[in-house]
Amino acid sequence: MTSYKSQRLAAPAIGRRAFLTSSAATAGLGAATLAGINAGHAQQSGTIKIGQMVSLTGPLAVDGVEHKNGLDMAIEEINEAGGILGMTVESVVLDSANQTAEEVSSAANLLIDREGVSAIVNGYNVGANQAEYDAIADAGIIYIHYNTSVGHHEVFESDPERYFGIFMADPAEVYYGYGLPVMLDRIRSQGIWKPENNRIALITGSLPYSIVISNAIRDNAAKYGFEVSFEEVVPVPTTEWGAVLKKVRDDAPAVIANTHFYPGDLAQCQVQFAQNPTNSLVYYQYGPLLKAFSELAGEAARGVLTSSVIGILPDELGNAFREKYYAKFGDTAEADPGASTYSEMYHYAIAAALAGGVGEPGNHEQNRKIADNLRRFVYRAPFGTLRYDPRFNAAIPYPTLSEDPSLAMPHLLYQITDPAAANPKKLIYPAPYNEAEFTLPPWFK
């Protein structure tokens, strides 16, 4: 199998202003592009069903509802632009609740067998572990998701012909782990943070997603002068962090990295840490991206680090999407997860239109044409470049794997700067996307 730490591709240097201006100006693939394709082709009639299986209930509904909103918003705009070659698009959304393999597989089968969907445009289902892949491969339809799983790479590489239509629209979770020591080294090199030691304490959620990230942090830490000095796995979900935090305080590490990702659970961890903090940077996986984390943690959230590979960029395209999303769904909505399914749907619609139309279950030939287009045409999304590496049928990260920001999805490091603000976080890495610089957390003595 292909190494997930392949040699990176270098890119020429380019200034932030020049890159962001040019990338926004050439975004191109959107409603206007689709309308142009529709105008140039013979029109068809009928309805296209697009399936989705996301958590509308349960602890991950905070994202699942937004994944539905993003899909519905894109479909509304696509229909206004003439649909897909004149065919009207409609969504069929099923609740994957706790995202178990059984729930996700059942939903996939219902979407295919009962609803006859032409594609499944999804958010994430972190507990399914690719259990839904075989039913989708048998049907031969397109399935685009954000499961963030290295397991996707492994299954796809095992039989690319069988799994031709299954795409992961963000980099695998393993790159979060490989990328964190790189980011910490960058912060240290700026001289603002002068760590008292080189120790990283790892707190790991019990889900495979979290475990893979922690393992990758451990594997890559020494390369950047860090040492994993403490590790403990905590059950998911969990709200009582006292016992593990006591052990961490006794270790007094330079960095605390918690790879559990439920925002409410992580907010409780930060509140309890802030009651007796150590001079440690605190990194939480994904959860603080959502406003629920800052609302629950309050002032204790200030200074926390977090990261994502599907965060909306603070550029012309990203800001315009955020404004449009809030206007439609209200200021309390979470635009970042909504942008993922919104962008997936547009990429699929354009790829299908260029292929001459969608393919229903069993129409492998037409769906292969669409899959080829998804790999062939890059889509500039509000969160950066959506491009599928043909080795994996998945996006790859910049700068962890590719040094070219026009060909990979940026791995974004944020810091919570104002917990009470409408957007509590600022992007501090990588260039040319960053909008602010790292500041030392207020709990440092």
**Would you tell me the structural class of the helices and strands?**
alpha/beta
In percent terms, what proportion of residues is strand?
15-25%
Number of helices: 14
Largest sheet at a glance? 7 strands, mixed
Elements, N to C (H/E): HHEHEHEHEHEHEHEHEHEHEHHHEEEEEE
Poorly predicted runs are: 1-29
Rg, nearest Å: 21 Å
The total of beta strands comes to: 16
What general form does the structure show?
A: globular
- The chain-level mean pLDDT equals 92
Strand order of the largest sheet: 7-6-8-9-10-15-16
Q: What distance lies between the first and last C-alpha atoms, to the nearest angstrom? A: 48 Å
Estimate the helix proportion, in percent. Answer: 25-40%
Keywords: Amino-acid transport, Signal, Transport
Domain Leucine-binding protein: 47-391
Protein name: ABC transporter substrate-binding protein
Pfam families: Peripla_BP_6 (PF13458)
Can you describe what's shown?
With 445 residues, the chain is α/β, with parallel strands linked by helices. Helices cover 39% and strands 17% of the residues. The protein has helices spanning 16-25, 31-39, 61-80, 101-114, 133-139, 150-158, 174-189, 208-221, 242-251, 263-274, 291-297, 316-329, 335-354, 364-376, and strands at 47-54, 88-95, 119-121, 142-145, 166-168, 199-205, 227-234, 255-258, 281-285, 305-308, 379-381, 384-386, 397-398, 409-410, 412-416, 425-429. It has a seven-stranded mixed sheet with strand order 7-6-8-9-10-15-16, with helices on both faces. The termini are far apart. Residues 1-29 have low confidence and may be disordered. InterPro entries: BCAA_transport (IPR051010), Leu-bd (IPR028081), Leu_Ile_Val-bd (IPR000709), Peripla_BP_I (IPR028082), TAT_signal (IPR006311). Keywords: Amino-acid transport, Signal, Transport. Residues 1-27 form the signal peptide.
